[in-house]
Design a protein that fits this description.
It is a single chain. The protein is an alpha+beta fold. It folds into 4 domains: about 15-55 and about 125-235, Distorted Sandwich (Calcium-transporting ATPase, cytoplasmic transduction domain A); about 245-315 and about 710-925, Calcium-transporting ATPase, transmembrane domain, CATH 1.20.1110; about 320-340 and about 565-705, Rossmann fold (3-Layer(aba) Sandwich), CATH 3.40.50; about 350-565, Calcium-transporting ATPase, cytoplasmic domain N (3-Layer(aba) Sandwich). The chain is built from 33 helices and 26 strands. The strands form 3 sheets. Strands 10, 11, 12, 13, 14, 15, 16, 17, 18, 19 and 20 form an 11-stranded mixed beta sheet that branches. Strands 8-26-25-24-9-21-23-22 form an 8-stranded mixed beta sheet, sandwiched between helices. Helix 10 (about 280-290) packs parallel to helix 26, helix 14 runs antiparallel to helix 15 and helix 28 packs antiparallel against helix 29. The longest helix has about 40 residues, at about 705-745.
């Protein structure tokens, strides 16, 4: 740790590797006296207050301005300006309204911008006990300065980075910083200089909490110089990646810029050379330029994303940033924390090894429902003396409490037939609010499943002495009075407990513990520990003396296996990710054996495979990696003991390889990575506020499966956007070809500028919007994610746009020339034919937007009720353009008779018919690899 981060702290490197006395001397402070008032004043003026620097809050005006920065919005602004310049007020107003509707939707959905630093600062609003001027005092955490002597005990929040000077059975929950699933033991002795954060046993860190014991220490860092301050800086510095949808829309917009310029120039030049009126051709060129821009694209895309956001919220995924909806659909890699995301984040007793055999316990976490099973069948623990004895030791040698409120209903007190009977379900579930060490809580839950309750056993055998857990001996003991003798209950590390046992068996069936048996039990312990299990041993003895050595001549009862079990359904979710072409990578603060075991349990790696993990300690900076090292990182699925900076590096490496990365997390240490990833996913139930504020998506149920639901919606939205962009551009190309062809051959214009804008206002909005509301293909999660570089419109899509546009243009031009030359209609009548033909043909063209491998009559488009509603509405609006006199006068059209309607309807269905034939031919050719 470099205390000179901000240029005002004294140099105090690696305090965890230095003796406590040396650290105190470096800070010129005595542990017994602490700082004097004068020293505190000097320190405060030198170091400032113990708080985290505020990040600049993104104002509402900045959020609003960001809505207008896309290329499409700039194009629309230019189009509106040109419309106003040539007195096309209605056209200009229509474009401006579309722009502001789009901006308003985006603004209100993104108003809750990232407030990461505000959340971090809430940690400072607590008090701390310090020793100053020789006396204890309680002060506000923000008043702490380097050199302060801090006094901590169970339940305290650590408010600065502290070098421990005294520790009594001290344990700290460091999961917010390290991701470690269990509390870690602390000590006064220094550790190695290169120890990673999770292994610095001589330090206490700001933002963590004391879960057991007590201690003292000297403050070595405050504010932004703490480890959590470093993370806060990373949150500020982490550059958010531009969303794939934003990139794709901007690329599309840039293409449209050149298309618009080319169209306007060619059509205007052709018309002028053909002798047409200059103003008319300039007006027509502007109209076509506006027609080339899909005015409805931003608003339809925004509405589609907003609907996806609403649908995700119903499935427990809250989206904080609108564009994140579609980004999920492009996700190709998910970096997932282990604890609480892939696992339950609740220690659970799963197996018990007794001399008579193995027992398995079902159920997870603090759920008291479960079965005691042996040899594939349920057993009654009360009939097994060894098992009942082990459970009694588990609840007696235990300082935790289940803290149940309606325990009378559960049959804990008094005579109740449900106790100990696994066949009978209890009457109602108690409200369990456990207090204590997670490991000890797990022991109480397992015993409760067997009908062994701490209160009952404790009443029959009251505790008269406790020997607290000692990290040096790795054991804990309690002494209980029973029938005039004392019973010693002992639990601890298997190697420690077995070393002080001289016999083995139940109370009624003890025998001498031989060295061969001891070795066999130690071997079983090592095998299970290598599988990621947390192992405990239980032992007991009786004595007439209360003061007898509790760790001598014990009777070994058995081994207890605990683990943080995989979440229900997580294996299926991981398998579904693989089917969808999404890699799941575990990034955890836990040890390698635990991570490997969980990885195999959930199907992340093959069962029994000799899979190697990469520890965070060996990871280099991205620019220092060789090609081989980079390839190894890209192929690795499990990373252990990873720091926040290393998470950022891993995400960068995968992003540089072209992956769209999603990151899940719940702690302070995850916040920088959540912000850096293309999509940050925070846990809603247990996640810390800073993680939620840095994320794009919050899972209310903390379920990994909810990510898959969100990915499905994201993919569906991208496909829907593709459909309506294809629909919009192909229709617009048809309009452009119609006017361009007529201009080039000197024929009358089949469509007038205002008619084009009227049609675009109808056809570019409602049918396109209906396509954006589609439910999507049921097989969408069986496909690979779209590459990050793939544009919205691929080469094949542009080919289809050209073909569809040409078909529409040919049908309209044919109807126009028949009306003009065969039926002998005047110019207004012929233009009415072309106007209605393209209007209706663009409506029926929506059915060409079905999936390539779907049926003609039964597909996602025909099943979309919004499409049918849009067709009905648009038909009514189009007819109003002809039959409402005022509108017809403005559009320069007139109502056709039955003969003309026959011509219009007949030719309007040609694009839908030929479009289906093209779709069939194009499918065949594409499969043959010729396109």
């Amino acid at each position: 740790m470099n205390m000179n981060t901000q240029g005002k702290h004294p140099r105090l490197d690696l305090p965890w590797s230095r003796r406590a006395e040396d650290v105190l001397k470096s800070l010129n402070v005595e542990e017994e006296g602490g700082l004097s008032p004068q020293r505190v004043k000097e320190a405060r003026s030198r170091y400032g207050k113990n708080w985290l620097r505020e990040t600049r809050v993104r104002s509402a005006w900045a959020i609003l301005a960001a809505q207008f920065k896309s290329v499409i919005m700039i194009l629309l602004s230019v189009a509106a300006g040109l419309s106003f310049a040539f007195s096309q007020w209605i056209d200009g107003i229509a474009i401006v309204v579309a722009m502001f509707i789009n901006a308003a939707i985006g603004f209100f959905t993104e108003l809750q911008a990232v407030r990461s630093m505000e959340s971090l600062q809430s940690m400072d609003r607590v008090t701390a006990r310090v020793r100053r001027d020789g006396r204890p005092a309680e002060i506000s955490a923000e008043e702490i300065v380097p050199g302060d002597i801090i006094i901590v005990e169970s339940g305290n929040l650590i408010t600065a980075d502290v070098r421990i000077t005294e520790a009594s059975k001290l344990q700290v929950n460091e999961s917010p910083l390290t991701g470690e699933s269990l509390p870690v033991d602390k000590q006064v002795e220094p550790v190695a200089a290169d120890a990673i954060l999770a292994e610095r046993a001589s330090m206490l860190y700001k933002g963590t909490a004391v879960s057991r014991g007590s201690g003292e220490g000297v403050v070595v860092a405050t504010g932004m110089d703490t480890e959590i301050g470093t993370i806060a800086s990373l949150v500020q510095e982490a550059r958010e990646e531009e969303d794939p949808l934003e990139k794709r829309l901007n690329r599309l917009g840039k293409k449209l810029v050149w298309i618009v310029i080319a169209i306007a120039a060619v059509v205007a030049a052709a018309g002028i050379l053909a002798g047409r009126e200059l103003f008319l051709m300039i007006e027509t060129a502007i109209a076509l330029a506006v027609a080339a821009i899909p005015e409805g694209l931003p608003i339809v895309a925004t509405v589609a994303l907003a609907r996806g956001m609403q649908r995700m919220a119903k499935r427990n995924a809250l989206v904080r940033r609108l564009s994140a909806v579609q980004t999920l659909g492009s996700t190709s890699v998910i970096f997932s924390d282990k604890t609480g995301t892939l696992t339950e984040n609740q220690m659970t007793v799963t197996r018990i090894l007794l001399p008579e055999g193995e027992v398995r316990i079902t159920g997870t976490g603090i759920d008291l429902h479960g079965e005691i099973r042996q040899n594939e069948g349920k057993i009654d623990p009360s009939l097994d003396q060894a098992l009942e004895g082990l459970f009694q030791v588990s609840v007696l040698c235990n300082n935790a409490s289940l803290n149940m409120r309606n325990e009378e209903q559960f049959g804990i007190h008094g005579e109740d037939e449900t106790v100990g009977d696994p066949e009978v379900s209890p009457i109602g579930d108690p409200e369990v609010s456990p207090i204590g060490d997670p490991l000890e809580i797990a022991l109480l839950v397992a015993a409760a499943k067997a009908g062994v309750w701490k209160d009952e056993v404790g009443s029959a055998k009251p505790e008269v002495r406790e020997v607290s857990f000692d990290p040096d001996v790795k054991m804990m003991a309690t002494v209980h009075e029973s029938d005039g003798v004392y019973e010693f209950a002992v639990k601890g590390a298997p190697e420690a407990v077995l070393s002080v046992c001289t016999s083995i068996g139940s109370r009624e069936n003890e025998k001498k513990l031989t060295e061969e048996e001891r070795s066999r039990w130690l071997c079983s312990n090592r095998e299970m520990a290598a599988q990621g299990q947390r192992m405990l041993a239980a032992a007991w003895k009786r004595s007439r003396s209360l003061r007898e050595d509790p760790y001598r001549d014990l009777t070994f009862i058995g081994l207890i296996s605990l683990q943080d079990p995989p979440r229900k359904g997580i294996k299926t979710s991981v398998n579904d990710c693989m089917k969808a072409g999404i890699r799941v990578i575990m990034v955890t603060g836990d040890q390698e054996p635990t991570a490997l075991h969980v990885g195999r349990e959930i199907g992340l790696i093959d069962e029994g495979a000799d899979t190697r993990t990469l520890p965070g300690k060996g990871l280099k900076e991205p620019d220092e990696l060789s090609r081989e090292e980079r390839e190894r990182i890209l192929k690795t699925s499990i990373f252990t003991r990873v720091s926040p900076e290393q998470k950022l590096n891993l995400i960068s490496i995968h992003q540089e390889s072209g992956s769209i990365v999603a990151m899940t997390g719940d702690g302070v240490n995850d916040a920088p990575a959540l912000k850096k990833a293309n999509i940050g996913v925070a846990m809603g139930e247990r996640g810390q506020q800073v993680a939620k504020e840095a994320a794009d998506v919050i899972l209310r149920d903390d379920a990994f499966s909810s990510i898959l639901v969100a990915v499905r919606y994201g993919r569906t939205i991208f496909e829907n956007i593709r459909k309506f962009v294809l629909y919009l551009l192909s229709g617009n190309v048809g309009e452009i070809l119609i006017v361009a062809f007529a201009s080039l051959i000197g024929a009358p214009l089949p469509l007038l500028p205002l008619q084009i804008l009227f049609l675009n206002a109808i056809n570019d909005a409602f049918p396109a919007l209906a396509l954006g509301m589609g439910e999507g293909d049921s097989r969408i999660m069986e496909r690979q994610p779209h590459p990050s570089h793939e544009p919205i419109m691929t080469r094949n899509h542009w080919i289809s746009i050209g073909v569809y546009g040409a078909i529409i243009a040919l049908a309209v031009l044919a109807a126009f020339f028949i009306a003009l030359n065969v039926l002998g209609l005047d110019k207004t009548g012929a233009v009415t034919v072309s106007f209605l033909t393209i209007a209706l043909s663009r409506l029926w063209h929506v059915f060409n937007m079905r999936e390539d491998d779907s049926g003609i009559l039964k597909n996602q488009v025909t099943r979309n009720r919004y499409v049918w509603g849009a067709l009905a509405l648009c038909t009514a609006l189009i007819l109003s353009g002809v039959y409402v006199p005022q509108v017809a006068h403005i559009l320069e059209v007139k109502p056709p008779d039955l003969r003309i309607w026959t011509l219009i309807l007949g030719f309007s269905f040609i694009p839908a018919f030929l479009g289906q034939i093209w779709k069939f031919i194009f499918q065949k050719v594409s499969r043959m690899g010729k396109v």
